[in-house]
Structures are given as structure tokens and as C-alpha cells.
Amino acid sequence: MLAFIAVLIISCPCALGVATPGGADGGRGQGAEAGILIRGAEVLERAEKLTAVVFDKTGTLTRGEPNVTDIVPLGATTEDEILRLAAAVEAGSEHPLGEAIVRAAKHRELVLPQAEGFEAIPGHGIRGRAEGRQVLMETAACSRGKTSLPPQPKPT
User: Fold this and answer.
1) What is the pLDDT of residues 98-150, one digit of tens each?
2) Which of the pair, 2 or 102, is modelled with greater confidence?
3) Which residues are catalytic?
4) CA 59 to CA 56: how far, in whole Å?
5) What angle, rounded to 10 degrees, do the helices at 79-90 and 96-107 form?
6) Long-range interactions of 110-118: CB distance < 8 A, separation 24+
7) Are 66 and 97 in contact (CB under 8 A)?
8) Phi, psi for 130 (deg, rounded to 5)
9) For the chain, is the Cβ count within 10 Å smaller at the N or the C terminus?
């Protein structure tokens, strides 16, 4: 690729219009192979102006995938019961956080009940039923009342 771009630049200076995006795409490709995802060339260009980088603690940076770090039960429900029901409903999800919940339940060797009525609400959360219990997992904004899940459709 480098030799190809060098020949284009020497033979035709207008090739810079091709070489610059090609170089950016090549750099993004190499970054992706190393596990660094860059949304687009403009994001890469703005990166030079960064003065700070903030990292999360979900494990996505240290392990390459999110992991369950804490389960905080409210009331008499145990951590394992919460994880078991959540994983049952999340088993129908393709979201990386849902996969992390299912992985955590399998790691604890929990038996997952059959879930039904799985519904993913993009940007808000999921809901479903397991063992006859309504299971709802929502974003922090939903939990704080800043937004809410749309009403559950009534069975027909």
C-alpha cells in the first residue's frame, strides 16, 4: 500500500487527494487489529487536541470486553437470584452488556430459567419475564426518572 501511494504522489500530485484518505483508512485498519476502534477520520484529526482521556471501569479497556463488577441487591433478593433472572432475560440480547451478564451467571454456574417476552428498547433497556416475574433492566437515566421505557404492549 505504501509503495502504491508513493508512486501516485510522485506521478501525480493530485493523488494526495487519494493518499490522505487512504492513509487514514490504513491507520484505522491497523488500530482495529490492535483493538483500537476509531469512528472516522475526523475523530482521528480532532484527537491531537485532546488534553485528557477518561477511562471506565467496566473491563472494556483492560480485558477487551465488559464484565459484571458489582451486584447490589435491594431487599431480600440475593445477588445470585438477581443475576440468574437478569441473565435469563439477557440471554436473548446481542448487546455486549447483556453478554457480560450471561457470562457472569455461567461463571457462577447458575441455572437460568426460560425467559419469555424479551423486548429490547434501544437506548433505554430491556424487559422480559422469567419464572413468572417481570424483569426490567434500564439505563441509569431511566432509573433516575429522566427518561422512561415506553409502555409495555398489551397481549393480544
Assistant:
1) 999 999 999 999 999 999 998 888 878 888 999 999 998 887 777 777 666 56
2) 102
3) 56
4) 8
5) 130
6) 110/80, 110/83, 110/84, 111/84, 112/84, 112/87, 112/88, 113/84, 113/85, 113/88, 114/88, 115/88, 115/89, 115/91, 118/89, 118/92, 118/93
7) yes
8) -145, 130
9) C
